[in-house]
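Comment thread on ticket #2218

A.B. wrote:
> Attaching the input chain for the structure job we discussed in standup.
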Amino acid sequence: MCHQEFRTLSHTLTLRYDKVLFIIEPSDFTTGLVRKRVTICDYPDGRLEIQYDGVTLPYRTFDKLQSVNRAEVVENKRLGPALEMIAAMQAEREVSRSLKAPSRTGQTDHMF
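C.D. wrote:
> Ran it. Output below, let me know if you need it in another format.
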């Protein structure tokens, strides 16, 4: 039992779902799936699978809503103003996920 969405793979084996870029791992099987429709299965427990014809495809993610933490960057006199500008830009952007996707309230192990 899962929430299903359908997406078409691009020529670079990527797709977008809920403001996240999913990069399908290239293999002999997946390179033949360019421009094919795949199913995204979003399970209530927070797991997410991308399937084609019942076969689960391995993927990596690139989350556009990730943010930079200033504490993680090494101190440098020239980085301060740049990091302040980035923090201001991150504070202004919309950080909510898609309204069509299932709610993740109370889930501690979801990928988002």
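A.B. wrote:
> Thanks. Noting for the ticket: Residues 79-92 form the longest helix (14 residues).
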